[in-house]
């Protein structure tokens, strides 16, 4: 579905992404791991149109989407979430979801003045869909709660819910598990798996929790210094010496060698 070819993103003399090439197959949950500074979030930002690439190419379903702005990619079904959730804190959880679909009738002054019945009907439909999303995510009891009052994990679920309010084809998740307690993390994982299996969502996710990655992701891609270092199953990645050295550190590699020898 997504093909990244020799992608570069430079900030002055710093090469945050330095010739990365990878593929994300349709219908998969692909994990993206690597040490801090490996270029993972920058890669996401370039693919999702937040940053313009220095060079390279990104295609989705064979269509060149390199450098397209986020709103254009959103319309094509490419969505991303952020490590820090971005909610409308003074609005309810339901209202946050209702805000997502574009080109709503009430957004034009003419409709707001002269087609109030049509606007109200669309709002009822959006509210119904939002409630279905919240029930799917098992947070329907929070529908009328102000989004700013949610816990970190609940806000991550709300961000996931936003992707369900439109016809998402692929969703990029940036550290969806960061700062989330284990119970809610399991709930988020269950929701991702259900969206993948029942609704055909394709996911690519940055994550540091290897257990969470192992539960959800196949394949797993490891980045280091702006490049793709290795790709494979979670077991293949864990056993890759380059990955161990770059991601887990030489100390752990030497410890593993010592344990094997003893």
UniProtKB/TrEMBL annotation:
Domain ABC transporter intervals: 2-250
Residues spanning the signal sequence: none
Keyword ATP-binding found: yes
Gene3D superfamilies documented for this protein: P-loop containing nucleotide triphosphate hydrolases (3.40.50.300)
PROSITE patterns linked to this entry: ABC_TRANSPORTER_1, ABC_TRANSPORTER_2
Any Pfam family the entry gives: BCA_ABC_TP_C
Coiled-coil residue windows: none
Gene Ontology MF terms: ATP binding; ATP hydrolysis activity
Top-level lineage group: Bacteria
Keyword Zinc: no
Keywords associated with the record: ATP-binding, Nucleotide-binding, Transport
One CC-aspect GO term: plasma membrane
Record-linked InterPro entries: AAA+_ATPase (IPR003593), ABC_AA/LPS_Transport (IPR051120), ABC_transporter-like_ATP-bd (IPR003439), ABC_transporter-like_CS (IPR017871), BCA_ABC_TP_C (IPR032823), P-loop_NTPase (IPR027417)
Full protein name: ABC transporter ATP-binding protein
Taxon lineage: Bacteria, Pseudomonadati, Pseudomonadota, Alphaproteobacteria, Rhodobacterales
């Amino acid at each position: 579905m997504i093909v990244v070819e020799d992608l570069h993103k430079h900030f002055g003399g710093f090469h945050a992404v330095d010739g990365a090439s990878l593929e994300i197959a349709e219908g998969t949950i692909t994990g993206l791991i690597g040490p801090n500074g490996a270029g993972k979030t920058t890669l996401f930002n370039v693919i999702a149109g937040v940053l313009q690439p220095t060079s390279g190419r990104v295609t989705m379903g064979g269509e060149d989407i390199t450098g397209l702005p986020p709103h254009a990619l959103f319309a094509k079904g490419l969505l991303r979430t952020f490590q820090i959730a971005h909610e409308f804190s003074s609005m309810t959880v339901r209202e946050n979801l209702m805000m997502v679909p574009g080109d709503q009738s009430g957004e034009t002054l003419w409709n707001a003045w002269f087609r109030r019945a049509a606007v109200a009907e669309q709002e009822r439909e959006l509210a119904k869909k939002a409630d279905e999303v919240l029930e799917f995510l098992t947070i329907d009891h929070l529908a009328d709660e102000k989004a700013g009052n949610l816990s970190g994990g609940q806000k991550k679920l709300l961000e996931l819910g936003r992707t369900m309010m439109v016809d998402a084809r692929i969703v990029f998740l940036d550290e969806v598990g960061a700062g989330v307690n284990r119970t809610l993390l399991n709930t988020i994982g269950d929701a991702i798996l259900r969206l993948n299996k029942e609704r055909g969502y394709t996911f690519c996710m940055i994550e540091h929790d290897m257990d969470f990655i192992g539960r959800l992701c196949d394949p797993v891609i490891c980045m280091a210094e702006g490049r793709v270092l290795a790709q494979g199953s979670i077991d293949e990645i864990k056993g890759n010496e380059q990955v161990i050295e770059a991601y887990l550190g030489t100390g752990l590699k030497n410890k593993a060698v010592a344990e094997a020898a003893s």
